[in-house]
Structures are given as structure tokens and as C-alpha cells.
Amino acid sequence: MQTLIFNQGDASESRIYYCAHYLAHSIGLFAAQQLQVHFTTSESGGHTVQGGQVPAVLSRAADLTLGGPMVVMKHFQQHGAELQCFCASVAANPWFLAAAQPQPDFQLSDLRGKRVLDVGNVGTATLTFRWLLARHGLQGEVELVAGSGDQARDFAAVAHGEVDYALHAMHMLAPAIVAGQLCSISSLANLCGHVPWSAYIARADVLREKAPAFAAFSRAITQALAWMATHDAAELAEKVQPFYADYPRDALERGLAAYQQARVFASDSIIPRAEFAHFSQLLGAIGWLDPSQPVPYAALVTQAGAEQ
């Protein structure tokens, strides 16, 4: 039996769109690969290279983590090709817009002259939304308001009409939506195009040293992603609910259904070169990456287990 230590960051990092590995564990896909995956956490998470789970991987306290390939790209520009993405997880932007009332015919142009409350204040998500506004000629036409740090207060502000929209991940929005406080208006997934938003990450040298274990992990995730594509949200929620013990079941089903409908989950473990390039160009355009320093796909992406 092979073993991998998987550091997930702090508790806030365990979002419902990060459920493929939980499903793989729940339905015995890791076990079928003769693989044990030990889930660990850090005291602090984060949205940059300094986030809690990345140092755990860099220090070899953990074998792998899950996060944005944007972190691997940033790390490359700062330190070289020490980290690699090796297996896909989230293949599109998981952020949504929500409002107090349904808007079935919503178009992005409807944001003109409106106020959008950026509840999460997550760096790359905020910058990506600004990129989206600029791309649609809405730069300067939409007031993006920073969240207060109090999610309940911010959602109430939208529900009471103090601001027009909330911008956040469906993981956070789903409980307010099932409670009737907010309505889902639009996913940003299709608007931004397919990008490798999140992937499994490890040190390049550890990937080589433990190649059979990482190949087994990727095969199990590939099978989990295929299962997710052929089962509805209620079935998926039943399998992963134990890993979200404090998350309301109706919200879990609603959130997972929204992510399935928006095609946020990767279809398999492959991280396509074209989508990686699109994402790196987007990240350069928003200032997350230095656009003068290319991020090479071949050095930063490996497909562990794909050949098997």
C-alpha cells in the first residue's frame, strides 16, 4: 500500500468545488489503487505562494496540495520550476453573481451603473472579475465594492438592496440561496472560458520520487471526475457530505448542482496546454504575473498517470 500526505490548507480551503478527492476516498477509488491518502491541514491557508498549504509542500511536510496553478506560475517567476501541477480539479472560474431577486435574462452588460459587492476579497478572483469587466467594455462602468469581512452582513446588504449584486464562490452563496435570502444570477465560468482554476500540486522532485503513488492518485481522481459527470448532485452530496459535516445538506446539493451545470469540475485529470496558456495570459493581463516572463507549460505541468 502506497501513501501520500495531502495538505489542504486551513479549514476555509475545503470548499465544495474541491470534492473530487473526497469522492475518490468515499467510494473506494484510492483503495482500489492500493493508495492511502492522509488528509492534513495547516493553521493558515492563503491565496498566494505564502498560503499555509504551499509551504507544507515546499518543506516536504506534505506530498501534495490542491490550489491554483496561478500559484505555481507565480512561484516559477519568483523561484523557478520547483512546483508542478500534475492533475486537474477545477476547470473554470467557480465564482458567481447573486442578487436579491431572480434575473433570468441577465447579461453582463446589465451590470452597467450597478454596485457589486466583492464579498470574498480574494485577490485573483477580484482581478479576474475586473479583467472580465474590461473585456466587455464595462471598466469604470461598474462600482466594485470591497467586502466588509462580515459575510452575513454583506449578504444582508444585497438582500436589502443596499448594493445590487454579491460576487462570491457558490460554496459561500449556496446556504443563502437555499434560505431564500439571495438568488443565483450568473456563473462566471462560461464568461471567463475554460481555465485550470485549481489543480493538484507537488514538488517536481517529489513527483519523480513517488511517481507510482502520484500516478495512482491521478487515476483515482480521473475516475472520480468521471463519476461526477454521470451522477446528479443529490448522489454526489450523499457521498461527500461526511467531509462537509457542518454544511447544510440542501445547500450542498444546490451548490454542487450549480457547479455541475456550469461545468466547473474538470472532465478528466488532463490540464490542457491551450487552457493553461489562456489562463497565464489572463493572469498577465490582470497583473498577477509578469507578462514579460513566460510561464512554460512543459516545465510546470506534468500529467501523472495519464499514460496509464
Automatic annotation (TrEMBL):
Identify the residues that the record assigns to the SsuA/THI5-like domain, covering every copy: 20-231
Keyword Repressor tagged: no
Q: Which UniProt keywords apply?
A: Signal
Give the location in the cell: Periplasm
Q: Which family does it belong to?
A: Belongs to the bacterial solute-binding protein SsuA/TauA family.
Annotated PANTHER family: ALIPHATIC SULFONATES-BINDING PROTEIN-RELATED, TAURINE-BINDING PERIPLASMIC PROTEIN
What's the protein called, per UniProt? Answer: ABC transporter substrate-binding protein
Q: What is the species listed in this Swiss-Prot or TrEMBL entry?
A: Pantoea nemavictus
